[in-house]
């Protein structure tokens, strides 16, 4: 599932950051919409969705947790990619003036002025799209953003102390903190030298601060690498080449050489160094 760095990368791509501002959906008007699979829409019927978004312009694009938010003139489109969702921003016509063909698993298309379309491709059909007047209708229950400067070490320690849960399931709980998934949680816990089943309320202030620092550093590195291209349709990321433990079962730990082990925590595949992350 795309996590915070992957969704952040997509959001930046849609607004033309860092080097393609001319190919952006900002200030473009939606001329039409096509829903190719009705189940894509979480809270609208296809006809209602199409009528409502037509002639609205994109004001901004941003990320909240793992949600992509496209703010329109009146409403907002929220997209959660989940297991296999991906977005393509492309020109409708190729260089020869021929319309580009749709792909097999395309589920929803937004047609913009200047011959550009945004396509939601979703092979496993888990991804969803919402059309809302207020994004907080969907996003209001999410936990704080890990990269928000307001989330300091003292605040984070207090959050951890309020729970008696294993660290990995807690960090992946989007109501606790927004944006972390399997990959970046494993990597952050490894950097902080914390075992994934250690109880959150047992962490010292120093361990909490180290964990928050590890979460932020691994997410920032993931963003700089345009995310990780593993296990889904998301393309273009490079962070999979810089992983320390995730997906490296049986390989040596970069620090101590101990073989990386795979275990199940909270029904999720989890990767640790048993020497560096002793319980």
CATH architecture of the largest domain: Alpha-Beta Barrel
Q: Cα-atom Rg, whole angstroms?
A: 20 Å
**Amino- and carboxy-terminal Cα gap:** 28 Å
CATH class annotation of the largest domain: Alpha Beta
What proportion strand?
15-25%
Order of secondary-structure elements = HEHEEEEEEEHHHHHEE
Averaged pLDDT, please?
A: 94
Instruction: Kindly state the number of beta strands.
Output: 10
Largest sheet: 4 strands, antiparallel
Instruction: Work out the count of structural domains.
Output: 2
Question: Your description of this structure?
Answer:
Helices cover 24% and strands 21% of the residues. It is an alpha+beta fold and 279 residues long. The chain has two domains: 4-137, N-terminal domain of MutM-like DNA repair proteins, CATH 3.20.190.10; 153-272, Helicase, Ruva Protein, domain 3, CATH 1.10.8. The strands form three sheets. It has a four-stranded antiparallel sheet. It has a four-stranded antiparallel sheet with strand order 2-3-4-8. The chain has a two-stranded antiparallel sheet with strand order 9-10. Strand 9 (261-265) and strand 10 (268-272) form a beta hairpin. The longest helix has 20 residues, at 205-224. The mean pLDDT is 94.
Name some characteristics of this structure.
single chain; 279 residues; alpha+beta; N-terminal domain of MutM-like DNA repair proteins; Helicase, Ruva Protein, domain 3; 2 domains; 4-stranded antiparallel beta sheet
């Amino acid at each position: 599932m795309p996590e915070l760095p992957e969704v952040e990368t997509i959001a930046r791509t849609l607004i033309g950051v860092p080097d393609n501002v001319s190919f952006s959906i900002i200030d473009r008007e939606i001329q039409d919409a096509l829903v190719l699979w009705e189940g894509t829409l979480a809270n609208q019927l296809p006809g209602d969705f199409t009528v409502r978004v037509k002639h609205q312009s994109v004001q901004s694009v941003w990320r909240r947790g793992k949600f992509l938010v496209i703010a329109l003139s009146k409403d907002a489109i929220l997209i959660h990619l989940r297991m296999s969702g991906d977005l393509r921003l492309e020109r409708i016509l190729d260089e020869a003036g021929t319309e580009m063909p749709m792909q097999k698993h395309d589920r929803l298309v937004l047609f913009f002025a200047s011959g550009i379309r945004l396509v939601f491709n979703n092979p496993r059909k888990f991804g969803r799209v919402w059309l809302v007047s207020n994004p907080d209708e969907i996003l209001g229950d999410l936990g704080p953003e890990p990269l928000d400067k307001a989330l300091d070490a003292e605040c984070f320690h207090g959050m951890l102390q309020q729970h008696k849960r294993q660290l990995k399931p807690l960090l992946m709980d989007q109501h606790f903190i927004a944006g972390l998934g399997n990959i970046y949680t494993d990597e952050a816990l490894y950097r902080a030298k914390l075992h994934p089943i250690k109880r959150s309320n047992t962490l010292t202030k120093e361990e909490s601060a180290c964990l928050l620092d590890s979460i932020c550093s691994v997410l920032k590195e993931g963003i700089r690498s345009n995310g990780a291209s593993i296990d889904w349709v998301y393309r273009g990321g490079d962070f999979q080449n810089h992983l320390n433990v995730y997906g490296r079962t049986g390989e040596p730990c970069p620090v101590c050489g101990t073989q990386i082990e795979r275990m199940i925590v909270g029904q999720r595949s989890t990767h640790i160094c048993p020497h560096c992350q002793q319980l």
